[in-house]
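Example (one chain per record):
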Amino acid sequence: MAASLPARVSYYLEATLLSKPSDIFAMSDFYSDLTTWRAECSATRLCRFDINARFYQQGVDITIMSRGAVEK
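Predicted structure:
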């Protein structure tokens, strides 16, 4: 699931990943990743947002935080 999250965000939100993809993996009880994205939020504006995803054996916690919008 962790590996497919960026592809799903990109596809379903038509978003572009702005941050460097995580390339570090270590065995643990959980995995977390913070990514920064840009997507069209209106005809004239682009929105930036962060996704903080935490993957546990029991499930997934995802937090989406707005970083504001800019004119195209």
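Caption: The chain is about 10% helix and 55% strand.
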